[in-house]
């Protein structure tokens, strides 16, 4: 047999062997399909079409499929499985607006047997940070760790991570108290606030000026209180609003509406002028 014939014969044999392997693989897959046909793997919920998702009103409560001893009950008598509870607490650690996790306005109980010691410890650290007014963070930019009140002595806070010192007034490096310009500026701002009867948030001590509207204040730290007496909102006998302030708020809203109306009219005139100019140009 010639060399060309030998090469052709070898190539045909290789192709036949490859076809035989493909046939064997196909038969194996068919056998697997037949075996799994009676026990198909259920699709995951995110793989299903949106219209087939289970509506919220048909969700199965945790107590229907989990032993009662594994559930945590809130003060409003709702029950949560450990997985959901852990997710709530983890989210509240990274997002202050979710702290503390609540159900029906009531904080979840902190249960170590459901959350685990490690998560509870991290949550307790954040609890100190989120509930501390006028917080101080390490002045070292590569650190910026929270300095708890227990690490603050007078006007100086010692970082528990890198042990650098931070001024609690200006939040900069430690320095003699008389040289703190921020402290002098703070005292001046407090003096102006007192002269104008501005209030300070009971939680974070931020200065709040109220010129119009009701006396219900929601601070940026999410504390809700009465602007008159600083008590928790809806726990005092102070009036909810002032007629004069409500009228001022209404007049301000009408003024903004009138401004927007005038602006829209000017914009329409400009668009009409631009259209006329363009039409004249293209002609």
UniProtKB/TrEMBL annotation:
CDD domains: BRcat_RBR, Rcat_RBR_unk
Top class in the EC scheme: transferase
Acidic residues bias: start-end ranges: 14-27
Record EC number: 2.3.2.31
Reactions the enzyme catalyzes: [E2 ubiquitin-conjugating enzyme]-S-ubiquitinyl-L-cysteine + [acceptor protein]-L-lysine = [E2 ubiquitin-conjugating enzyme]-L-cysteine + [acceptor protein]-N(6)-ubiquitinyl-L-lysine
An individual GO BP term: protein ubiquitination
Domain of life of the source: Eukaryota
Example GO molecular function: zinc ion binding
Sequence ranges assigned to domain RING-type in this UniProt record: 54-242
Keywords from the UniProt entry: Metal-binding, Repeat, Transferase, Ubl conjugation pathway, Zinc, Zinc-finger
Region named Disordered: 1-46
Coiled-coil regions listed: none
Listed name of the protein: RBR-type E3 ubiquitin transferase
Native source species: Colletotrichum gloeosporioides (strain Cg-14)
């Amino acid at each position: 047999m010639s060399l060309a014939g030998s090469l052709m014969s070898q190539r045909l044999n290789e192709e036949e062997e490859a076809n035989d392997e493909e046939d064997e693989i196909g038969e194996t897959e068919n056998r697997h399909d037949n075996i799994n046909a009676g026990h198909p793997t259920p699709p995951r919920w995110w793989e299903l079409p949106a219209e087939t998702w289970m509506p919220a009103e048909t969700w199965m409560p945790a107590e229907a499929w989990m032993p009662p001893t594994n559930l945590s009950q809130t003060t409003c008598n709702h029950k949560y499985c450990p997985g959901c509870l852990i997710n709530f607490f983890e989210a509240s650690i990274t997002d202050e607006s979710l702290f503390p996790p609540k159900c029906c306005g009531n904080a979840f109980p902190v249960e170590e047997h459901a959350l685990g010691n490690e998560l509870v410890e991290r949550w307790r650290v954040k609890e100190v940070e989120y509930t501390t007014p006028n917080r101080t963070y390490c002045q070292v930019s590569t650190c910026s760790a929270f300095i708890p009140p227990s690490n603050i002595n007078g006007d100086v806070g010692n970082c528990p991570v890198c042990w650098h010192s931070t001024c609690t007034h200006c939040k900069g490096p430690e320095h003699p108290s008389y040289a703190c310009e921020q402290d002098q500026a703070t005292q001046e701002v407090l003096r102006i606030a007192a002269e104008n009867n501005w209030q300070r948030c009971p939680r974070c001590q931020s200065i709040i000026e109220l010129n119009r509207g009701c006396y219900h204040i929601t601070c940026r730290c999410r504390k809700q209180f009465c602007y008159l007496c600083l008590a928790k909102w809806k726990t005092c006998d102070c009036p909810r609003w002032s007629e004069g302030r409500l009228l001022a708020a209404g007049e301000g809203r009408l003024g903004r509406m009138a401004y927007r109306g005038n602006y829209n009219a000017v914009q329409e005139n400009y668009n009409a002028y631009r259209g006329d100019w363009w039409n004249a140009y293209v002609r």
